[in-house]
Amino acid sequence: MSGDGLEGLLSAVHRLTAQRTGTPVCGTAGHGAGHVCLVPPARTALPGIEEAIGSRFGEPLRLVTGGTAAAAGAAAGLPLLRPFGERVVEMRAWAYGDRWIGCGTVCADDADGGVRPVVLVAEREDPAAGAGAPATWVDGIVSVTGWKSGRARTVDWPAVEGRLGTPLPGDYKRLVEIFGGTGAFDGFLHLQVPDAHDRSTDLVRHTEWLGEWARTHGSRLWEPYPVYPAPGGLLQWARTEQADGFYWLTGDPDPDRWPVLAKEDVPDSWERFEGTTGEFVHRMLTEPDQPFSTARWFDVHWYQDYGPAAPDEGRA
User: Fold this and answer.
1) Measured CA distances, 21 to 25, 36, 53, 95, 99 (Å)
2) Digit-coded pLDDT (tens) for 267-316
3) Distance of CA 259 to CAs 8, 172, 220, 223, 302, Å?
4) What's the whole-model pTM score?
5) DSSP E strands: which ranges in the chain?
6) Euclidean distance between CA atoms 203 and 216, whole angstroms
7) How far, in Å, are 208, 238, 244, 246, 267 from residue 218 at the CA level?
8) Within 114-222, where are the H helices?
9) Which of 44, 75, 100, 190 is least enclosed, having the fewest CB within 10 Å?
10) How is 119-150 classified by DSSP, letter by letter?
């Protein structure tokens, strides 16, 4: 179908992913509550549908490929598979708060046989429900987001820290290794990581650019703080699409003791958090009263994956 057909499909997906709206009910005969099936655009194959949804919601989790369920995430994604039973041939999934978005192909249930594309939005349970207390803040982030990707990163941290001229907080490094590449917690907080595709999301290149900009233009935008590599200066480690910035104040020789400072894209809006990076992210996801909290809008949390940081990174 034309691009209008895909745009209409995306509009329906957005409408159905509104949060805290109760149990969806499918109108397809024989389907129960807990999901809604959508009509795929005519003459649009699975790759086109996947690309369109992925352009809004990031990299999908591959629940089923060639009729075989993946080990990572298949159980959590059952609400997308259950309506079609054993007829699922392919299924891609995206988490979005308390909803799953899925597209795939299933064996047709008519005399013609073959496969047909399907698109649906289903309920998503809280992945942390019933979980015990996490051992670390980072473990808590993994738990509340339900992160199940098979990708992990091996980062040459001595080389990265050598380029920066400073060691980095340990829980930040663990977040980068576990979550793999570029992405955003609750589709909001974007980590800046080593070896990202563009400078704005690359930790080292952005730090170098920001330091040079502050040196040549002055650091008035970050007053009353200096900008790294000035002694004790701000080093940015995350951002949002709304231009909020998240920094470490690098004065302490122990990076695990660096406080987090955050600001909106307006003067004099600094918020200071005396805790680790992992604690900041976990509280942002789970505590509605925390500044910059996403828990005001989402009861169930996720990590929106934008793919590997560097083109040659593979999946573990």
Assistant:
1) 11, 13, 21, 16, 10
2) 788 999 999 999 999 999 999 999 899 999 999 999 998 876 654 443 33
3) 45, 13, 21, 16, 25
4) 0.90
5) 35-38, 61-65, 68-69, 88-96, 99-107, 115-123, 183-185, 189-191, 234-239, 245-249, 260-263, 271-273, 303-305
6) 20
7) 15, 21, 20, 19, 15
8) 137-145, 157-164, 170-179, 203-217
9) 75
10) EEEEE---TTTT----SSHHHHHHHHHT---S
Single-letter residue type at 233: G
Query: Amino acid identity, residue 135?
Result: A
Which residue type occupies 27?
Answer: G
**What is the b/e burial string over 276-300, where b = at least 16 CB atoms within 10 angstroms of the residue's CB?**
bbbbbbbbbbbeeebebbbbeebeb
Residue corresponding to tokens 């039973």: 85
**What is the spatial distance between Cα 109 and Cα 100, in angstroms, rounded to a whole number?**
24
How do residues 58-85 score in pLDDT, each as one tens digit?
A: 999 999 999 998 766 667 789 999 999 9
> Is 107 buried (19+), middle (13-18) or exposed (0-12) by CB count in 10 A?
middle
Residue 300, token pair as written in the block: 């169930």
Tracing tokens 């290149």 back to the chain, one arrives at: 205
DSSP, res 223: T
How many CB atoms are closer than 10 A to CB 115? Answer: 15
Strand, helix or coil for residue 314:
coil
Bond into 229 cis (ω within 30): yes
